């Protein structure tokens, strides 16, 4: 087989394959013989159907399969052997081929090539790096969240905002009196905090266990059928029947009470004996916050590196038409409108992907299985931490991480995260860091309208 490559532009080229009969003939004969051994046909013993009959029935199909295998094998081997930096998939020309009658084939494939981009970085390149301040206020807020997450419900005697109130809810007539056949909810539970009507909400101010109040659920929730039906335990279509007043006899007031900030909380959060006393606890909390803030700072740093190198490289030529065809082939169910709508952003992301690959190669970034597993374990740790579970056993985290890696999409995301982590660590030692101290509030503002 003769294969040639010709550049047709700065970022485009064509590969031409000249296929001769000798290139595929042996494999076709082998395929026919294999088919002959498996075919079962009335009047013939298994494996003894005449070769001529097998060729007549399956010859064209087997020839097509073997030629396609040859094309795929030789095309990608040529690309790899000649280090052609191809974007997307080769696009086949509409070459006229009669697979049954032709013995030689000349096929053409358009290639989109990655543009040349110089993205070297050194200490002469300066990029901002934000050191987020861990203040006492930030530590206080985190301690408060931890105490809240470790809290428990407790019965109290008088109502305060966000309490849960339970009791008997009974329908009243137009005169505000109980009546026979009225709707009664024996175990009604509500949170006045979530009432949409302030006047109804105010009825519970200072209320105590044993008090009898008169409320209007429809007014309280401003006619929200879902809320009212849930409270009254009736169907939505029945809600309109109960738009009047109800008595509410308070039998219980429940309040969620934060845990006390003491050794019991310290042991619960970080493990028994891991920290002793409030000072050590606050120091440990501060340490964990700094680690999280550093991850946030690293994320912002990578965004700033991206903006910096994209600006440094400037405008880049891409094989637009070929990439649009590739995108359309990959999204046939969405059509050309989808391609036109999303193509520009896809090129923005492709440019950064190529730049990141070059940065990773320049800094000898390699991701091993251990890195991916570590990223999965850290992702699992962060997920549990969101729910206040900061002392999850390592074995449990590793098992959770293994389940995450079974999902291809999550695994790909973790590979990208591993590359990002290593790349950030490397680039922090390559470029000149323009360090800036910043509060967590002001750091958050850097992402507004982005």
Give the arrangement of secondary structure elements.
Layout: E1 2-7, E2 12-19, H1 21-38, H2 51-81, E3 86-92, E4 105-113, E5 126-132, H3 136-149, E6 152-156, E7 164-171, E8 184-190, H4 198-202, E9 212-215, H5 217-220, H6 225-232, E10 246-257, H7 263-270, H8 277-313, H9 320-330, H10 335-362, H11 369-385, H12 394-405, H13 408-427, E11 432-438, H14 440-445
Parallel strand pairs: 5-11
Antiparallel strand pairs: 1-2, 2-4, 3-4, 6-10, 7-8, 7-10, 9-10
Structure description:
By secondary structure, the chain is an alpha+beta fold. It has three domains: 2-113, Alpha-Beta Plaits, CATH 3.30.70; 126-144 and 265-445, no CATH class; 152-257, Chitinase A, domain 3 (Roll). The chain contains 14 helices and eleven strands. The protein has helices at 21-38, 51-81, 136-149, 198-202, 217-220, 225-232, 263-270, 277-313, 320-330, 335-362, 369-385, 394-405, 408-427, 440-445, and strands at residues 2-7, 12-19, 86-92, 105-113, 126-132, 152-156, 164-171, 184-190, 212-215, 246-257, 432-438. The strands form three sheets. Strands 6, 7, 8, 9 and 10 form a five-stranded antiparallel beta sheet that branches. Strands 1-2-4-3 form a four-stranded antiparallel beta sheet, sandwiched between helices. A hairpin with a 4-residue loop joins strand 1 and strand 2 (12-19). The longest helix has 37 residues, at 277-313. The relative contact order is 0.12. The mean pLDDT is 92.
């Amino acid at each position: 087989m003769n294969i040639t490559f010709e550049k047709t532009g700065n970022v485009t080229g064509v590969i031409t394959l000249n296929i001769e009969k000798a290139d595929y003939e042996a494999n076709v004969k082998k395929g026919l013989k294999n088919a002959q051994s498996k075919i079962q046909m009335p009047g013939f013993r298994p494996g003894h159907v005449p070769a001529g009959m097998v060729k007549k029935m399956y010859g064209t199909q087997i020839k097509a399969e073997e030629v396609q295998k040859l094309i795929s094998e030789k095309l990608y081997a040529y690309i790899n052997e000649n280090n052609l930096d191809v974007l997307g998939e080769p696009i086949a020309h509409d070459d006229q081929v009669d697979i049954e009658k032709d013995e030689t084939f000349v096929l053409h494939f358009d290639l989109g090539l990655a543009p040349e981009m110089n993205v070297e970085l050194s200490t002469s390149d300066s990029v901002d790096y934000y050191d987020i301040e861990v203040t006492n206020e930030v530590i206080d807020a985190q301690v408060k969240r931890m105490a809240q997450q470790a809290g428990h419900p407790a019965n109290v005697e008088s109502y305060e905002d966000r309490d849960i109130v339970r009791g008997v809810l009974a329908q009243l007539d137009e005169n505000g009196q109980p009546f026979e056949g009225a709707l009664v909810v024996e175990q009604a539970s509500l949170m006045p905090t979530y009432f949409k009507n302030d006047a109804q909400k105010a009825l519970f101010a200072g209320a105590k266990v044993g008090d009898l109040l008169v409320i209007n659920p429809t007014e309280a929730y401003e006619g929200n059928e879902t809320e009212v039906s849930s409270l009254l335990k009736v169907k939505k279509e029945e809600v309109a029947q109960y738009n009047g007043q109800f008595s509410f006899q308070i039998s219980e007031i429940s309040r969620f009470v934060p845990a006390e900030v003491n050794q019991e909380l310290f042991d619960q959060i970080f493990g028994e004996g891991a920290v002793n006393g409030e000072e050590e606890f606050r120091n440990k909390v501060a340490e964990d916050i700094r680690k999280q803030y550093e991850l946030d700072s690293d994320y912002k740093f990578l965004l700033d590196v991206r903006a910096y190198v994209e600006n440094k490289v400037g405008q880049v030529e891409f094989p637009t038409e070929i990439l649009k065809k590739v995108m359309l082939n990959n999204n046939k169910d969405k059509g050309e409108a989808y391609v036109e709508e999303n193509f520009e952003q896809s090129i923005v992301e492709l440019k950064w992907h190529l730049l990141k690959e070059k940065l990773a190669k320049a800094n000898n970034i390699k991701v091993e299985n251990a890195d991916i597993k570590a990223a999965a374990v850290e992702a699992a740790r962060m997920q549990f931490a969101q729910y206040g579970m900061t002392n999850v056993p390592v074995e449990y985290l590793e098992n959770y991480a293994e389940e995450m890696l079974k999902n291809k999409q999550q695994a790909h995301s973790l590979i990208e995260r591993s590359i990002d982590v290593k790349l950030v660590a490397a680039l922090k030692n390559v470029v000149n860091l323009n360090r800036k101290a910043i509060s967590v509030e002001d750091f958050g503002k850097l992402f507004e309208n982005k």
